[in-house]
Amino acid sequence: MIEIFANAQELARGAAEYFVARSSEAVAQKGFFTVALSGGSTPKALYELLAESFATEIPWSMTHFFWSDERHVPPDHPDSNYRMAYEAMLSRVPVPESNIHRVHSENPNADDAAREYEQTLMPLDLVLLGLGPDGHTASIFPGSEVLHETKRLVAAPWVEKFNAHRITMTLPLLNNSASVLFLVSGAEKAEMVKQVLEGPRQYPAQFVQPTNGNLLWMLDKAAASYLAAD
Ligand code: 6PG
Question: What pTM did the predictor assign?
Answer without folding.
Answer: 0.98
